[in-house]
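Quick one, T. Sequence first:
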Amino acid sequence: MTELKNDRLLRALARQPVDRTPVWMMRQAGRYLPEYRATRAKAGDFLSLCKNTPLACEVTLQPLERYPLDAAILFSDILTIPDALGLGLYFETGEGPKFRNTVRSAADVDALPTLKADVDLDYVMNAVSTIRGALNGSVPLIGFSGSPWTLATYMIEGGSSKDFREAKKLMYGQPEAMHRLLDHLADSVIDYLNSQIRAGAQAVQIFDTWGGVLTGWAYEEFSLRYMKKIVAGLIRESDGRHVPAILFTKNGGQWLESIAESGADAVGLDWTTDIGHARQRVGDKVALQGNMDPAMLFAPPERIREEVADILARYGTGSGHIFNLGHGITPDVDPEHAGAFIRAVTELSPAYHRED
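Structure tokens:
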């Protein structure tokens, strides 16, 4: 077992003392980096890049070579599970992910195969173990998955959606079928994340990208319920350390207290929730991750620094804060601005972690 040289992220997730606030970015290995674009061109397309172990490792490490980040996150996609279940994932230029097959009836749900992540998604596990070895203990590796509700929306709609008409039609019109689908996906995510942990992931995040499109009762019943099942089914110790779980629901700030009771170690916040108010609401139940508006990275570096300072001040002193964007970094951000953001966190946050 390689000793972890920088465990700042894992300590903050456990709300243990740290010397400064750890920082990483959702989508930190992505199109805003010219070196990523060059590697992706070498791979041919996005899915080929995900399935090419050496290149997936290469792009995962690229942002760490540029910036003093406190974590690496596996380079993959949240839609690998539906693809492995036979839906035929592909990407249209400028239109995002699409599926050749959809799930829109009880019969479609019942026809889905059982996922065997170690076999069906072996390329992901190969990437995890290769990245973990390449990191050589420099920072922890985060694995991830989409939430059952978010995966279901793509599987039902056949891709991205503005109104989630077909997904909500199944949810409201055939709730039993929707529950069977979500239960199947929860089991798949448990297997998938546990396989990542066995392969070397040291923390995991569940991306509930579309939970925020639900009403309050529907969020509890069709999204959070299944994320709780996942958290309860995860391997929670590996290499002699606790394996923390982070739940991120975009536009989920109104359900913060319920999410904090999920059993997860941390709650990811988007930029619409004030992090200081969030800390007051949940106390020390969970760590909080976030939550600068990604669009702030289009501002001049001095304005970015002001925003970082404000978010740090709103959270206040002590551990339990993992600085991140409130969603993924966008492709047209200047890498120098991302660097200004990370530099501001590393320079300004130590003042909030000094012992009296």
